[in-house]
Fold:
Amino acid sequence: MRRRELVILLVVLACATMAAAGQYQGTVITRSGDRHTVENLDFQGRDEIEVYVDDVRRLLTFDQIDRLRFAEPGAEKIPVVLHLRSGDWLEAVISTGGARNTPSASSVGGGQATNGFTGTTSLGPFYILLEQIAEIRFAHDGEPERVAIRPATVIDLNGRRFEVDALRYRARTSFDYQQGNQKRTKELARITALEFADVEGQEIRPVVITFVTGRQARGTVDAGIVRLSGETDAMYRRRVMEVFTGSTPQGPFAMGLHQLKLIRFNAASADNADAVGGERDSGEGGGGDGEP
Structure:
């Protein structure tokens, strides 16, 4: 009896995993004009894609995207236009990782390389390199997930003040921090202020998070200022100096955790918290409102 229950449990878990990983489908059009209807569509095992808009890193989930249109590839980058389900569109570039453009890069039934989309078709497993794609049209059911984009006032340790629109944390609209051994993730729409300890050069920085309800939580963030082995200047700049990104009237904005003193979100934007609900955790760290 126990063995039977175990088998049933494993089947249920496998089905749940497949459903979670394979919720996106769409039509992939190659540069030669071939069309593939692909289920379980993902990009390098994820349901999000990393692009650079005006040299600022952005992460967009498939749920936000209606279609992707790729221009002629360069040496290591491909220009791409993202048509979003909100009606907006973005001109960006995506890294190919230097992968080679080969006639056999698009394959059904086998063969994989790097930096491409995978999925399944009626003929079997599907894989295609970025360089081989002309367009991807996603097939969505229902309405897109609402994403709150937050303008904010950012003050650094030198007292400089920046008015930043569409502020993101590591290209996302949520903020990660640690409380002991627990990682917590909060939507920026639930936060009114982030105040960092006034100590320059610390690898681990204490932070006080104030929520739209007035409650506060204390935690720490890793500024990551120590250079990693083999890390290039460009990689270090993106990892350390482009943690919070957005735009100002003067142009693109980027700042590292080691430079920050205070982030104060515009009061009018706090209304967006109703759309994402309360102060609940997502990701690791369990439930509750994040208070110690």
